[in-house]
Amino acid sequence: MSIPELIVQNWSRLLGGLAMTVELTIISLIIAAVLGLTFGLLSVSKKKTLRAIALVYVDIVRGTPLLVQAFFIYFGIPAALGLRLDPNMAGIITLSMNAGGYLAEIFRGGIESVNKGQMEAARSLGLPYSLAMTKVILPQAIRTMTPALINQCIITLKDTSILSIIGIQELTQTGRLIIANNYQAFEMWTIVAVMYFIIIMILTKISKRIERKMSYGKSKN
Amino acid sequence: MGKVKIKNLKKSFGDLEVLKDINLEVHEREVICIIGPSGSGKSTLLRCINALEVSSSGTIEVDGNDITNAADNELNKYRQNIGMVFQQFNLFPHMTVLENISFAPVALKLKTKKEADEMSLKLLRRVDLEEKANIYPEQLSGGQQQRVAIARALAMNPDVMLFDEPTSALDPEMVGEVLNVMKKLAKEGMTMIVVTHEMGFAREVADRVIFIDEGFIVEEGPPQEVFGNPKNQRTINFLNMVL
Ligand SMILES: Nc1ncnc2c1ncn2[C@@H]1O[C@H](COP(=O)(O)OP(=O)(O)O)[C@@H](O)[C@H]1O
Ligand SMILES: [Mg+2]
């Protein structure tokens, strides 16, 4: 069968796989954003123990392969605790923890990139640290972080393909299952690759637009 | 009545003792100018007064409140009363001029947005920048930014204002407009502590000039005394260098 014929024949399964990929990505990134912000804030804390906690988390995430993290969460922890974990759940936990670690570093970098005088100006007006952080530092940090944030979204989207190994039916796993029936590896992997490519190009376009919108200046009327 | 009372203040950074024994009392409506060589501890002294730096020992009282032993939430209250103007302006770049000024009173729930904006416009009028309300700081000149920074500090209605070399980062032609705003403030009776290299301003506006060198107050007195008849050799050397 030709590629167009294969697309027509497998359209709904492929779209289902893509939907699962996008769903895993979105849910994981939302949880990862919370983790990343939390641990990013810990890593710029004045308290040494809080910084140490953040450091350990980030180092573990960065120091181990995603695949090993996925196996540890899907096979390792359930084996130790004598329970069963749904693969989707395991996948979301893995991706969230993983992206959370990288986002923590991105948040730390963003916060540290803001001039020290900004925090001092805010504190000198009588603002508590938390308000100064949320209203003065973070809005500026997030602007400089935007490219790195979007880059992490793209990485996490691609990382979902690794979760095919624990049996989650996202796009890559869907491709494998279809090939198991029709043996058309070249055509099917071409289709799958192009689907990833299109989604990521769309994300990149959107991100370019956001970046441009976020630059300062231009009066507000 | 002492507005700011500093007793036996010491401040070290690691092994470096920057402030060695500072005693200073600033009275209500008084304007103090602090002069001294670079690295002598002027900024550190100013920053200890609103606890941006934590003093190593000694006490600082502002309006009777002990700054040096205050809990975090008390300190936040006390700081509302102590305005600070920085050499580098430190305006919030993601807010318009008006938002910069209204921000703190609104964030601290002292005023509604509407009340704060009305006050901010009045403050902008005072620093002669009313027409810049809806512009972002990066579109302003340095002198305009510093005037906005003064307005922002005034928005908290402080009793004391600290200025850390407010004109040092400015092109020469913009120094005057900032000093004029400060002169007006002084005339209106604001208690001010000003670290400056503008000897003309000190001579004209200061009630008292303080010369700091190597972490000590070496000489102090009315400007005509300190500038006209300095007693300490180090003061004489410094003045010869800058005048
Ligand atoms: N945060 C800091 N850490 C270490 N040393 C500092 C710090 N801030 C200031 N210093 C040092 O303290 C001394 C006095 O600095 P500063 O108060 O800024 O002097 P001035 O404002 O009179 O030029 C300098 O030697 C400076 O290097
Ligand atoms: Mg200084």
UniProtKB/TrEMBL annotation, chain A:
It is found in: Cell membrane. The keyword Membrane applies. Residues 18-207 form the ABC transmembrane type-1 domain. The chain crosses the membrane at residues 20-42, 54-77, 186-204. It holds the Pfam family BPD_transp_1. Gene3D superfamilies: MetI-like. It is a multi-pass membrane protein. It comes from the Bacteria. InterPro entries: AA_ABC_transptr_permease_3TM, ArtM/GltK/GlnP/TcyL/YhdX-like, MetI-like, MetI-like_sf. The keyword Coiled coil does not apply. Keywords: Cell membrane, Membrane, Transmembrane, Transmembrane helix, Transport. Belongs to the binding-protein-dependent transport system permease family. This is ABC transporter permease subunit.
From TrEMBL, chain B:
Keywords: Amino-acid transport, ATP-binding, Cell membrane, Membrane, Nucleotide-binding, Transport. The keyword Nucleotide-binding applies. Belongs to the ABC transporter superfamily. SUPFAM superfamilies: P-loop containing nucleoside triphosphate hydrolases. This is ATP-binding cassette domain-containing protein. The keyword Amino-acid biosynthesis does not apply. CDD domains: ABC_HisP_GlnQ. Residues 4-239 form the ABC transporter domain. The lineage of its organism: Bacteria, Bacillati, Bacillota, Clostridia, Eubacteriales.
